[in-house]
Protein 1
Amino acid sequence: MSKRGGSGSEPGRSFRVVWLAEVDSTNRYVLDAAHSGEREGLVVVADHQSAGRGRLGRTWEAASGSSLLLSVLLRPRRAVDELHLCTAAVALAMADAVRDVAGFTPALKWPNDLLAGGHKLAGVLAEADLGASGVVRSVVVGVGINVSEQAIPPELTSTATACNVVAGRSIDRRSLFDAFLLRLDEHLDTADPVLLADYRARLATIGARVRVERSAGPLEGVAVDIDELGALLLETETGDTVTISAGDVVHLRPV
Ligand code: BTN
């Protein structure tokens, strides 16, 4: 695979896969490899993580062999405020892989969750290594997707789902992974405006009444769009439009 990267990646990207039985966190593993000078394209997959990381400092837990847990090392020629395009490419690639292998198409919830029937199917966590002047040295994008229902911790059964539940049959992790890499290669080579349009089109958050859990407190409104930087534009009851760069979104109902 050696196409010129539309999303700012080095030309000549090729994926090198390391599949581990167990690791603390695939994101941690790949970040360490990036610090040691590893090239773009390392992909680490684990059957089990003992200290999986979620967004906003949370943990990510799943029974061994029940999920596809992976991290990809990218070295995009991008400014830090363009990194949302890398996470969008990964989320879109996984959504496409699910469509290809499991036969249903997950929607996206801002910023990068995959949803099926309104329930969480997968989460995406990007962690960047920035140089002194804010230059992006590398970004590690991790995905955890519930392949079978054993992936779902008991406290999340009412809000999460798994590929086999939605598809009505068991889904092979290796097939899903192979499809993901093919789709990722395509999305990383997609021109930015097209990638952003694809992401926007699949974002179920747009048009929904939502509650945003922010460090500054919750805020409700209608999610009207995303901006060029991937931030969510929320129209509140007072008619103001608030730009949300980070936070957790709860879909209340479609408008
Ligand atoms: C979220 O909070 O929704 C994001 C979860 C991301 C979990 C994945 S599992 C593989 C990779 N390694 C980690 O430690 N986290 C990500």
Note: Residues 1-5 have pLDDT under 50 and may be disordered.
Protein 2
Amino acid sequence: MQPIRLVTALLTAVALVVPLSATASAAPPTADQHGKTLRQAAPKKFRIGSAVAGGGHHETMPYPDPFSADRPYRDRLAAEFSSVSPENQMKWEYIHPERDRYDFAAADAIVRFAQRNHQVVRGHTLLWHSQNPAWLEQGEFTADELRAILRDHVRTVVGRYQGRIQQWDVANEIFTETGELRTTDNIWLRELGPGIIADVFRWTHQADPHAELFFNDYGVESVNAKSDAYLALIQQLRAQGVPVHGFSAQAHLSTRYGFPADLEPNLKRFSALGLETAITELDVRMDLPDGGVPTAEQLTQQADYYRRTLTACLNVRGCDSFTIWGFTDKYSWVPVFFEGEGAATVMWEDFSRKPAYYALRSTLADRR
Ligand code: G3I
């Protein structure tokens, strides 16, 4: 057995028996769960998802496009998940690279893959401050021209996948940590004002009446100024008849910080409004020791955070979609963004499973 696999196997075995607390030990897979995948263990109608690696940070890495080049990766993606989210492939800079040119190839391939594998798709994303192409961010447009550009983008992209996207992240990360609208770095809010938010939800609903339309953000797992701002905005929009169907927490967590213990009551505030909720981008990064291999205690804590996030979602009416932001350390964005942190996903680079994987699987299986 190669050294890394031996270390992996030892760490996983040890971590499964080194409980962090009475409620936090990563339950070892029981006999009836052996061999089951996450989607096989999940309750009916509960979607367990993963981001589909491609674009973004992958373009700066020394490997080919994961989704199109890595067959074992794609096989695991099909076997383990009942929902997929294009990590970058539906973002403006990829799908609308020039003002008069769309490039649907990568997104089409993911949607076809999902259909072949009986998976739903989370569309990501339409109105955001990041990963917009230069022609848009640096262009000289009147407000009317900019509004027409956004409307045509929504009609073209959402219309193309009509009936094939279960949930759209219509508006992504529109508030600051203090609950103020991003009226500086978000081109749409800066140039068109907050009224564009209702417009983009209406345009999306017109283009695909089947899709559930979400706000999506990080740092909203707890009750705080940011999640409060979403609660107030959504209540206001729904009172105006704007088709907002859901609110989702990305849940990019770190063992450097405590677990957001009020995640469940926070999501329940949105559920109480009749909204769907979702976890859309969970990963749990950790400070890597020298040598880069997490300790058994770190793996146990990570498994605990995965389990508690999933448990919170399962406990909230209308939280029926739970997505991790990539399932293997081989392709994770975390080491690229957070120097010294990593090992954030549920599988090692060789797709062998971590305690966090078993924590998800046993939590799902207990709800069937
Ligand atoms: O565009 C620049 C390019 O000009 C430059 O030459 C190149 C090399 O430095 O970097 C390019 O930027 C890349 C960017 O994607 C745009 O494609 C960054 O390197 C790259 O790290 C970045 O990664 C993506 C990131 O979003 C962008 O914010 C990740 O792949 C992707 O996983 C991540 O996903 C986001 C979700 O969409 C929203 N929630 C947060 C989540 C993590 O940031």
Note: Residues 296-314 form the longest helix (19 residues).
Protein 3
Amino acid sequence: MFENLIEKAKEAQLKSISPYSNFRVGAAIETDEGKIYLGANIENASYSLTICAERTAIFNALLSGERKFKRLALISDSENIISPCGACRQVLAEFCNQDFEIIMTNQKGETKIATLGEILPFSFSKKDL
Ligand code: THU
């Protein structure tokens, strides 16, 4: 399931700029209309300025004018299935609904799917302002 989006995440992973961690992460986000945008982690010598693949993917799409998103696929070099970090969850929550799907996969092809609402319950958002 979602093979095409996972393939796009793998394609994105090849664009990772990760000379410090050597941990390449790729993401692909799909809009409501089925368009796909890529993201990869981009690291910085000032380590904390590094940005994750999930955020570059959604920022890439936002800058192309997209505002409605269905799902995101994520892959890394790890044998583990990785899930978005806290900062990325919060950024996704700014633009995606609770039922937004996150398809997490690893190099062995194992996959887990969770919604944004499941991985970031009881979140702070614009509804609270
Ligand atoms: N990273 C991501 O791009 N996404 C994640 O979900 C976890 C971590 C990146 C940040 C850094 O470049 C490298 O992985 C190691 O933490």
Note: Residues 18, 21, 23, 25, 41, 43, 50, 52-54, 82, 84-85, 88 surround tetrahydrodeoxyuridine (CB under 6 Å).
